[in-house]
Structure formats: structure tokens, C-alpha cells
């Protein structure tokens, strides 16, 4: 369909028609053709740009039309030549907006965990979004309601001083977060031995917290259940397991203090978590009293940002894919040494 003509153009056509009527009777198409073939300094030559551009508008719109995506373009099968670009656009859209309902249903139907979906699309890893968007810590909440823990869980503990001179460590608080940094468990714990040094300036734990603290046995049992059959992430995690009096299969453990790519940030054999957070994440932690929830979240984020390299290194260290049948992936209570002071 030809574009609608302006009023001035209509008047000009009427004038041309009046001038050509006595000499030749023509159809509308031939009149337009005849008028186009006229020459001379008539009024039609005053607007050459209009005469040239007018017939080209339909052609231009036809060339531009394929470039305008329709609202359903992402739901249609793409042509073979643009398949890669279309798939990339889909992934970018999902990454920016999060997991779509259809993707979540598909993942659930195919028994794919939320962690795997998040890893595949890089969700929650734009900068330090995992740290910024997680809710504030809820101290001593115990097991968080409504949190469905996946395959990975991170731990951090706060310790107080016991024994002669307060040089031995005892558990006073334990915190767990999931793959997305959400709080799974947090509890103050009553030490089994008399506390000599509360280390409040570092641990953040004081005698006042013991009024509502859980017993060591209760906290230990709850934590062991959460560790069961999961990948445990921690920073120098052997110290956390020691005060929890728990063992966990090394094959199912990821330690950010032992990761080879992080060694260059340490002044000794192991880099400090505070240094890794500052150098790799650009965040300040442990500037005063420590928060075991915050430390666990930072540990998990460090692991997530370098998960592929962690997996490669871990596979080379443990080439046998068989699960250790003796422990079956379960954290076992460790017998305390009665003779130790």
C-alpha cells in the first residue's frame, strides 16, 4: 500500500491532472507515469527530494522489517544461520533475570539441583551479589526454617580459649550457609570445659551468649546431620572439624586455604581468609569482631567463583570416583582424647 500523501502533494497532483486532461485521457497509473516523465522548470521540480524519497519508503520498510524482533521471537525456532546468536541471547536473558519458571520446572523434572542451574548460568556471581543480597545474620537461630539445603554447604566456627593459659580451642559458635550464601544454621555453643579466655574482641562471643546457647552434643548432632552426604566448604576447615569433634571425608571437602591458586596471597603456607576477601573479592571482613556467618559466606563465594579450577584440582588429587564406603560421605563424631589437657 502506498503511503498517504500530504495535502500539498494532493493539490499538486490535482493541478497536474487539470493541465493534462485536455491532451490525454489516462488511467491513474498512466497519469502518475506521465507526470513522472515530465521535465522543465515546473512546480514538480521544486521538490525533487520528495519525488525521490516517496517511492522508496515501502522498500526501506521491507528491508528493515526483519531486523525488528517480534514479542514472540524468542519462542520461535531460529534459522540455522542465526542459531548461535539466538541461543546466546537466551542465555544472556536468563542470566540477567534469574531462573525462569519454565527452567526451574525443567530442572526439577530432570533431578537437576539449584546449585547446578546457578553454576550453569552464573547466577548470583555478578560482582559480590551473593554477599550483598543475602539477608542479615540471625544469631543463634538454630536450623533456619524453610531452607532446602543442596549439595554444598560452608562452615565457619568461632572459638574460645580453654585449658592452661586458654591456649586450647573450644567451640563457642558454629554457622553454616548453603551454595547461595543463605543462612542454614547458626548457634552459640556451651563449651564442655571451663572457659579461660572468651576472646570476645575476635570471636564476638561473651558469657552473656551462653544463657541461650545450645549444648555441645545438641549442636554437634545437628551439624553432623547437615554435613551428611554433602560437599563441605571451609577455610582451613580442619580447625572447624577439630572443635566440632567431627570427621568428614577429604574427598567431599573443599578447602580455600589449600587451593593452589590462592597460595600466592599468603605470607606463609596458607593465605588468610581476610586477605583473600580483600584481594579477590574487594571486601573487608574481620576488621573487628568476627562473624562466622559472614566468614562462611565469603568462603562459599570464593569457592563458587573458582569452582571449575577447584574441581579440576580436586579430581587430580582424588582420581578414584568411588565414594569411601567406610564413611559413606557422613561426618562421624570423633572420640576426644581424655588425656589431653
Protein architecture, described:
With 341 residues, this protein is α/β, with parallel strands linked by helices. It has helices at 7-20, 28-37, 48-53, 56-64, 83-97, 101-109, 114-121, 129-133, 200-203, 216-227, 237-244, 273-281, 292-305, 307-317; strands spanning 142-143, 152-162, 168-178, 183-190, 195-197, 214-215, 231-234, 246-247, 253-255, 332-333. The strands form 2 sheets. Strands 1, 2, 3, 4, 5, 6, 7 and 9 form an 8-stranded mixed sheet that branches. Helix 12 crosses helix 13. The longest helix has 15 residues, at 83-97. It is elongated and about 120 Å long. Mean pLDDT is 75; it is low at 23-31, 33-40, 42-51, 56-98 and 322-327.
